[in-house]
């Protein structure tokens, strides 16, 4: 049998009748890691279980979180369009998703509800479908260690107290966990935020806590 050449990464997971004639602009400048992920068939991708998600958070290996290959492709297409239309991802986040007129906080960290907004992660990772991924956006800074790029112990305590206060009354402790991306992993640097993972939460609670938010992945074709 003749040897079959592997598909270029930019054709993987794309129906043959939709194959572009060349690599799309939004994929041309990708790093090797994203090329490798997008070049993996969805059928070969294994979604993380809740136990795996909690484990990676507990050992601070959030770099292990990746999107499903076809979703990463859509994410790259979406952010490419955002930069062209809004000038930057930050402009879109602040103006459209957060709709904040000012970035100046009213109070100290976690003191004023107006300084915080909880939304769905627009492009969640490849995780068990029962896991809900939220992002907590804040107008105030959460201190990082300048040497490690990780949250300081004091900042960790502030976040931990807020998460327990906000989610602990509605979920069992083993069914939620939070993490803050290392600086090197952040896709949005200019607006402070951290992530919450929740296992099989009440949908009504999710509507309440996100103010009926809908992630962009559900809106983008």
TrEMBL record:
From what superkingdom does this record's organism come? Eukaryota
Looking up InterPro entries in the UniProt record yields: DUF3605
Q: Name one Pfam family in it.
A: DUF3605
Which GO biological-process labels does this protein carry? N-acetylglucosamine metabolic process
What's in the GO CC field? cytoplasm
Tell me the PANTHER family matching this sequence: N-ACETYLGLUCOSAMINE-INDUCED PROTEIN 1
Q: What is this protein called?
A: N-acetylglucosamine-induced protein 1
**Organism ancestry:** Eukaryota, Fungi, Dikarya, Ascomycota, Pezizomycotina
